[in-house]
Fold this protein.
Amino acid sequence: MAAPLVDIHTHRPPEQGVITLRSAGIHPWEADGRSIAELLPLPEGTQAIGETGLDGVRGAPPGEQLRLLREQLDLAERLGLPVVLHCVRTFEPLMRELHGRPLRAILFHGFVGSPEQALRAAARGYSLSFGIRSFRSPRTLAALRVLPVGCIFCETDDDPAPIGEIYRLVARERGIGTEELAEALWHNYERFIGKESE
């Protein structure tokens, strides 16, 4: 039986038969004056904290973004949950914030960046997800091609393209079949949420 497709990050209702990650968090665009107290208690079935992160282009003032990022990372540590990160022109500051934190798992969602950045994140055990926006960036496609398959995911985010189309594009760039990709990403998902250790 073929592995189910996983849409690791989406802002729309899940497609039929597609597995989605259930997360709760406060986006850096909305961080000003917010507190993690608003998240608690977490909705039943929450699998990850996020999306949280930093945005160097828009959103709340940088200090507020950083404060709320740290609060949400602390919460993820306490609860043993993975973290979904928003990262726009803030890769280095985020890598500094993450360094040494005993987080269960980290996902840079909607990754757009260089192969060097991607490999640095992968070397720390972080995951990166790719969506339609990733395919507009030649350097991001280069990153997708060199990453170990064990640290990648596919996502729709807020794009209308079906997740199957993202899988098809990623598989093409990787030079593998979509079923092989689906199998690998299903194992990545189980590892990310801690199901493999159950």
Notes: Residues 62-79 form the longest helix (18 residues). The mean pLDDT is 96. Strands lie at 6-7, 19-20, 23-24, 48-55, 83-88, 106-108, 127-130, 152-154. The longest strand covers residues 48-55.
